[in-house]
Amino acid sequence: HDFINTTITLFLSENREDHEDKRVVQEIMARRFTPTVITTTSWEGFHFVGHEIRITEAMDCYGAVVWPSALVLCYFLETNAKQYNIVDKHVIEIGAGTGLVSIVASLLGARVTATDLPELLGNLQYNISRNTKMKCKHPPQVKVLSWGVALDKTFPRSSHNFDYILAADVVYAHPFLEELLITFDHLCKETTIILWVMKFRLEKENKFVDRFKELFDLEEISRFPSLNIKLYKAMKKNRRSA
Ligand SMILES: C[S@@+](CC[C@H](N)C(=O)[O-])C[C@H]1O[C@@H](n2cnc3c(N)ncnc32)[C@H](O)[C@@H]1O
User: Fold this and answer.
1) Is this model's pTM higher than 0.90 or not?
2) What residues does ligand 1 touch, defined as CB less than 6 Å away?
3) Which residues lie in coiled coils (predicted)?
């Protein structure tokens, strides 16, 4: 009997989780819309924080499209604005790509620094300016941050104190995983909260999570099995003021 009961309970809870996953993912994806009129420049629209956000994409590189992880993080920030109150907080986004997450964080009232590789910065700056001008408490900044490169010079430890580090879909088959880890570590102070959305694709990426756990306390906040995405909260390990 016990065995049957446990099996049924497990089946029901898995079913419930599956159902809930599909429902939330549908809700998240419904925030995206495409223009009804064909225009010369291609853009995609998103609804967050009561605003219509227009994102121009470029088709030639990774960071040039909005990835599902970014939508998951935007939705999380909007729907958990009480628990994770980022108003007036110092927030940095790494691998910002088209800038959607940084835009949403700015619209929510944070002091945002959006960063990515130099070649992404033009489009990133364009999207951020267009969607935040006259709409934000603190105008966001856009800066180059190549993972692991000249961090002491571009972001000296003594001059920054980020409350939050945001990262959406920064782990995939690229050769800079160790540099990415170094960057998280460099930017993270004792009280910094990392909100990191991870899309699982390959075995190598699970190894990154293991490496990450050596430096940070990692907590899974939510999971979206149908997208192979998990949302993590992390803080530096062995903090004095935990
Ligand atoms: C898969 S995209 C995700 C973009 C955006 N966060 C999103 O979710 O839509 C990965 C991002 O990481 C950036 N990136 C890749 N390697 C990098 C590096 N070595 N230093 C800094 N950024 C890097 C890419 O330019 C790109 O914007």
Assistant:
1) yes
2) 62-63, 66-67, 69-70, 95-98, 116-117, 120, 145-147, 168-170, 174, 176
3) none
Residue 241 lies in a domain: no
- Residue-level pLDDT at 230: 96
> How many domains are contained in the chain?
1
Residue positions counted in the chain? 242
The CATH number covering residue 101 comes to 3.40.50.150
Assigned domain for 228 exists:
yes
In whole angstroms, what is the distance from residue 196 CA to residue 208 CA? Answer: 13
* Percent of the chain surpassing pLDDT 70: 94
Ligand 1, atom 13: nearest CA belongs to which residue? 95
Instruction: List pLDDT tens digits, range 8-32.
Output: 777 777 777 888 899 999 999 999 9
Nearest atom within ligand 1 for CA of residue 172: 1
Task: Quote the domain boundaries for residue 121.
Answer: 1-236
The residue whose C-alpha atom lies closest to atom 20 belonging to ligand 1 is 146
Residue 148 CB: number of other CB atoms within 10 A? 15
Question: Which amino acid makes up residue 146?
Answer: S
- The CA 172 to ligand 1 mean position distance, Å, reads 9
**Could you tell me which of 106, 66, 93 has the C-alpha nearest to residue 147?**
93
pLDDT computed for residue 242 by the predictor = 46
